Amino acid sequence: MRRVAVSLAALLGLLTPNAADAGVGDPQVRTDHPWYPGELSCSTFERLEATQADLYRRVVGDVPSADEQKALAAWLWRNTHYWHGEEGVEDLWGEGFRQGGDSATRDYWTGLFAHGFGLCGTTHAQWSAELHALLGHNRGRTVGTAGHNSFEVFLKGGPYGDGRWALLDHDLSTVIFDREQDRLMSIADVQRDDRRLAKRSAAEAQRGWLVCGLHPDDGAVYADYRSAEYFPGYSGAPPMTHLRRGESLRRYLQPGLDDGKTFVFWGRNYQTAGIPGPERSRTWVNQPETMYGSEDGAEYRPGQARFANAVYVYEPDFRSGDYQEGVIAEDARQITFEFQTPYIIAATPPNDAAWGIYDAGCRNGLAVQGEAECETAISTDRGANWTACGRLTGRLDLTDQAKGFRQYWLRFSLPDAPADSNAPPGAVAATLADAGLKIITVCQANGSTIPRLRDGRTEIEFLASGRAVTSIGPTRPQADAHRIARDFGTPTVTLAAEAPRGRPAVAIHAAAHVASSNPPSPDVTYEIEYSADAGASWRPVVEDWRITRRGDEPGDFWSQSFCWGDVPLEEPTSGPLQVRFRNTGGKKYLRAEMHLVYEPPSRDATEVTFAWEDDGGEQTASHRFTGATGESQTWTLAAGRNVRTRWVEYRPVPSP
Q1: Which positions ≥6 away from 243 have C-beta within 8 Å?
Q2: Where does the signal sequence lie (predicted)?
Q3: Which of 50, 59, 229, 378 is most exposed, with the fewest beta carbons within 10 Å of its own?
């Protein structure tokens, strides 16, 4: 396969203005499962806070109102939905998975939905964005200790007065109260007497929360108090999936897919108990009811938590106009489809090595099936560069080209088409009409965010917002394809993009990775602005953002940070939007990304299917929800006893 550079401007000039009035924008489900109701319970910070508050009330018996209670509710939820593991990275710098700058997954939503696991510093960096949304500006930080990256939250009110840092380590399942159980202690407090304080103690002496809940020796890490990371993570666009007519999304809660032996993942291959892929043997995930009041901690159980999968199958209909719903460009010579997901494209590695996912020869992440006289090519940097993949004959496995990304463009072109760009489109669609084209994209997902059924009757809520998102980033090559002013490595950079297929944008999310220096200065202000009139005027997305310094601090700091925010547009906006990043301290921007939320045509109904096992064997049930955008709808599903949810699938179907 070979890479071919083309003009992005030339490609974008071919954008199709009219698309089929079909598909479903952002379908989501929530069940009444007591612990794992699904994505509709946690896909925005507002939904997440409400879910955490309800869970805390049921477990502890109190409604969280003070800072401390809200922080503990978030900590409880994170402990039971996210586990310690080594995720595969994204090629953020365009230099390969093992090259370039910092490659940790620092976006909150990617960490939660595409992985559900990460190392201590990774998960706590992501989590800082949640505490920022929950409590306010810069209320969480990652703290370097002895061989560990822990976490502190800045609490106010009551025993915390105007504010104090408090240890809130979900990676080691540890919070520590003072002797009187009046307040949570900081790492600096604990470090001064770590041998007494940071050891496993009875839960009743800690308001029901066991110190070192995962392993009794974990407390040794608090002997040192070394460094602080302010704004070490961020939140990009919340998870949204746009399903086009002819496309389905099926999510499997356990590894193996349909045959139980096809393992497609994006992380370290532990091979625990003979099952490939990431896992964790000591975690509260999948046993959340045992956490509060535990005396012995999480039991060691091989494979207690493993990766899940999200599988997209797309069969565009070229005999109608439906296929245009997925098209980003079309002319007489080619058709280009886009794909974007909140999950991450996974791989079956060619070997049993710990990091075989990075080796050449991976399979099952992206497959294109069909028979047609068409050449195929793929781009993962929004059309700036293309990799030729050969003739569409049988099954093309493009996993090595797509793995570790969350978006791609896929182009089909006629090998002998005329060069006249003014010729009307249609020739490629006619060629593909009888090709039996099927595009299968297998992603990794977090099983804790997939809706589960319960024994007996399950109440299911469905909601489709009618929205979708197009992302410029997170990789630097993806952003470079839309950079219109200055360059990365300078104190200002500007990106420009528009929603696909001429649809109006309704909101902007933006984030930047900044070399903010060690120590970071609280006097530097960071701004993100947008323009809808080609730069003639600018409006704020983020203004007067500062790296505030408060409370006790260690002697060292991370020299980088993130700045992020979002804004609804005053009115739906078609055409290019610009986003500008700048600061007053001459700090260099390492990466930047922008996400446009838009409203695709979403008139289809959604068929939701659950598959499960119970005491009666394997079962499935389906229900069709109407295409009413933004309207909550319900379904009651009856199951037997000892229910184990296998998968859930969403599929657009024409409305009656």
Answers
A1: 23, 24, 27, 249, 606, 650, 651, 652
A2: 1-22
A3: 50
Rounded Cα distance between 129 and 165, Å, is 16
Structural tokens at position 487: 């360059």
Sign of the Cα pseudo-torsion (233, 237, 240, 245, in order): negative
Distance (Å, whole) CA 127 – CA 109: 10
Residue 460 vs residues 25, 309, 330, 333, 424: alpha-carbon distances, Å = 19, 21, 40, 46, 47
Rounded-to-integer distance, Cα 328 and Cα 30, Å: 32
Q: Which amino acid is at 554?
A: P
Q: Which residues pair with 244 in a beta bridge?
A: none
Long-range CB contacts (< 8 A, 24+ apart) of 272-275?
A: 272/302, 272/303, 273/302, 273/303, 275/303, 275/306
The residue length of the chain stands at: 656
Cβ atoms of residues 577 and 496 within 8 Å:
yes
Mention every residue, 6+ apart, whose C-beta is less than 8 A from residue 370: 392, 432, 435, 436, 437, 438
Show me where the domains of the chain are located: 2-26+239-267+307-455+602-653, 30-230
Structural contact between residues 147 and 223, judged by C-beta atoms closer than 8 angstroms: no
